[in-house]
Write a structure and sequence with these properties.
4 strands; Translation Initiation Factor IF3; alpha+beta; four-stranded mixed beta sheet
Length: about 90
């Protein structure tokens, strides 16, 4: 079953939950290396909803927030300043 995009109401709810999260990762000047993407993958698989703190310029943050969902099949639900909140449905327990 293919995941449908989140509705704006779902995104709003996830942003509310995400605001209370501590950042799972800090992405610095090295950007989205394979190692960083692997860490994000692990965090998404384990938690479903994660917050990432970016130590980068605004334009770079915007790029990362587009690249992460494209590469990892998750959804960017929003963010404030230098943080981004990403969501992916948890895999069903087999």
């Amino acid at each position: 079953m293919e995941n449908e995009p989140l509705t704006s109401a779902e995104k709003k709810e996830l942003r509310g939950i995400g605001q209370r999260l501590k950042p799972h990762l800090h992405i610095g000047k090295q950007g989205l290396s394979e190692t960083v993407l692997a860490e994000i993958e692990v965090a998404l698989t384990k938690n479903g909803l994660i917050k990432i703190r970016f130590e980068a310029e605004r334009a770079a943050i915007k790029t990362y927030c587009a690249e992460i969902p494209a590469k990892l099949g998750c959804e960017y639900v929003g963010g404030v300043g230098k943080t981004g909140i990403f969501f992916r449905d948890m895999p069903a327990e087999a």
